[in-house]
Specification:
The chain is of the alpha+beta class. The protein has one domain. It has six helices and ten strands, in the order H-H-E-H-H-E-E-E-H-E-E-E-H-E-E-E. Helix 3 runs parallel beside helix 6. The N and C termini lie far apart (54 Å).
Length: 235
């Protein structure tokens, strides 16, 4: 079917397309890239020994906040592309050192690297795969250095039909890009909220961050995968 012959999108799909276009404008690329675009120029590697969601979140925020301006800009223009690999961060060598290791030592971040010159772990370690295990409805990630009663931001994630790797991709994109956009403080408390689906009709007002991508079962439709709650009210 020719694009001009497709039936008009319902209002919710139009809204999701608008949010995807805004993200593409922030990246500086055409909005078609998340669906079927060119390979990235810059890639980050994440090595996982075990599933530790609080540590993963804390480490992803810390890693992103430590990037230089040039590194952050290059990664942004590559859609914050990240590869997830199974491995033990303790076994990384001086030739490919971790830039950040999560609290507890279960996850390590390397890079960013030019996508055509990735280090040894990208070839030696097995890519993350497998089904997504049952997740708790909520996961709390306490802040670092702030008051104990600080208001938690909430990151809502749609998990229906996602594999483990797909879940990590959506989560990590949302964390990294929220920090790069200045929408999420890297040391602030955060609560992950897992739901089968997110209601895109709640996006009448601009969210602090929304990750929109194509629906796996229907590539012609868009789906809201992640939404970040608004900034906590000021005292």
């Amino acid at each position: 079917m020719n694009l001009d012959e497709r039936p008009p999108r319902p209002p919710t799909q139009e809204r999701l397309a608008e949010l995807l276009a805004r993200r593409a404008a922030w990246v500086g690329r055409p909005p078609r890239r998340p669906v079927a675009g060119e390979p990235p120029e810059t890639t980050v590697l994440v090595v996982l020994r075990a599933v530790d969601l609080p540590g993963l979140v804390r480490g992803a925020l810390d890693f992103t906040a430590r990037l230089t301006h040039d590194e952050a800009d290059a990664w942004r223009r590559s859609w914050t592309t990240t590869r997830f690999l199974f491995g033990n961060p303790a076994n990384l060598t001086a030739r490919a050192p971790a830039r950040v290791i999560s609290p507890g030592g279960n996850t390590a971040w390397l890079g960013p690297f030019p996508a055509t010159r990735l280090p040894g772990p990208s070839r030696l370690l097995k890519p993350v795969a497998g089904v997504l295990l049952d997740l708790p409805d909520t996961v709390e990630v306490p802040g670092t250095g702030g008051p104990a009663d600080a208001t938690y931001r909430e990151l809502h994630i749609a998990v229906r039909d996602l594999s483990f790797a797909q879940y990590l991709v959506h989560l990590h994109h949302a964390l990294a890009e929220s920090v790069l956009m200045g929408r999420l403080a890297p040391g602030g408390p955060l609560r992950l909220v897992h739901r089968p689906d997110l209601d895109a009709r709640a996006l009448d007002q601009d969210p602090d961050y929304a990750r929109v991508h194509q629906e796996r079962s229907d590539p012609d439709r868009l789906r809201l995968y992640v939404s970040l709650s608004s900034d906590p009210p000021k005292a």
